[in-house]
Amino acid sequence: MNLPFGRVLTAMVTPMTPDGELDATGAKAVVKHLLDTGHDGIVVNGTTGESATLTSAESIEMVEWAGEAAGEAAKIVAGVGSNDTRHAVEMAKLAANAGADALLLVSPYYNKPTQAGLLAHCRAVADATDLPVLLYDIPGRTGIPFAVDTLIALAEHPKIQGVKDAKGDFWAASQVMAATDLQWFSGADEVNLVHLAQGATGVVSVVGHVAGKRYAEMVAAVEAGDLATARRIHLALIPLVEAIMNTSQGAIMAKAALKELGVIEHASVRLPYLEGPPEHLEKLRAALASTDLS
């Protein structure tokens, strides 16, 4: 199988110093950590990368640093989404020039275009470079879902090759999988097992910052038809998923977890995010201590 994005991906955090500047050393350390824990794909400038608070120049720096650290060991998937199509096209070209292997394209947020507008937006960005495009469907944040018919139409574009599904509409996912060759990726750790069982290619995780090996094992188990093993992994990770995804916010708690493991020095975030309160950090520490991550 051709894997333009990889199979085990994490949407990586953007490490920062206490004064809010990007931390190149920390970014490269996170990439190395992800490579050492079973990843063959890394997403930069996604939701968990605090893309909404990065400048265009900072986003491209993250692509460059990730590529330098990963070399040929993993695909670097660069988030280039915008609610301004011209800006998204510009970011796609800059990311390609910076060495990205693929693009992550979220649906335009806030302005809520029609499905026809969404089609035109995605085609314009896909036309801008020769890189494969992973569509990102997360209507809880953007306000607009990709309709089934829209995804089927977009699948006809040769550069549009996959979907990161954070929508959780499993019937719609099945319909698109049945009608297209799009590679499907779970975009929510709570339902990774469900998506894999219905035929997803892989996962784009957040909890993978600390549980990458477990998710790599889950993907391999499902591919081998060993759903019992995949289910055991899924159940064992519940405390960690709860601590990272269902307390403060994924980016906040993923940084806290990486700091706890000694991967990064600071868990700093940019406003409007704040670092997690003590009770959330205690829940995280307990989950890390009780979960086998080796």
Automatic annotation (TrEMBL):
GO terms for biological process: diaminopimelate biosynthetic process; lysine biosynthetic process via diaminopimelate. It comes from the Bacteria. The keyword Transmembrane does not apply. This is 4-hydroxy-tetrahydrodipicolinate synthase. PANTHER family: 4-HYDROXY-2-OXOGLUTARATE ALDOLASE, MITOCHONDRIAL, DIHYDRODIPICOLINATE SYNTHASE. The active site is at Y136, K164. Catalyzes the condensation of (S)-aspartate-beta-semialdehyde [(S)-ASA] and pyruvate to 4-hydroxy-tetrahydrodipicolinate (HTPA). Keywords: Amino-acid biosynthesis, Cytoplasm, Diaminopimelate biosynthesis, Lyase, Lysine biosynthesis, Schiff base. One of its GO terms (molecular function) is 4-hydroxy-tetrahydrodipicolinate synthase activity. It catalyses: L-aspartate 4-semialdehyde + pyruvate = (2S,4S)-4-hydroxy-2,3,4,5-tetrahydrodipicolinate + H2O + H(+). Pathway: Amino-acid biosynthesis; L-lysine biosynthesis via DAP pathway; (S)-tetrahydrodipicolinate from L-aspartate: step 3/4. Pfam families: DHDPS (PF00701). The keyword Disulfide bond does not apply.
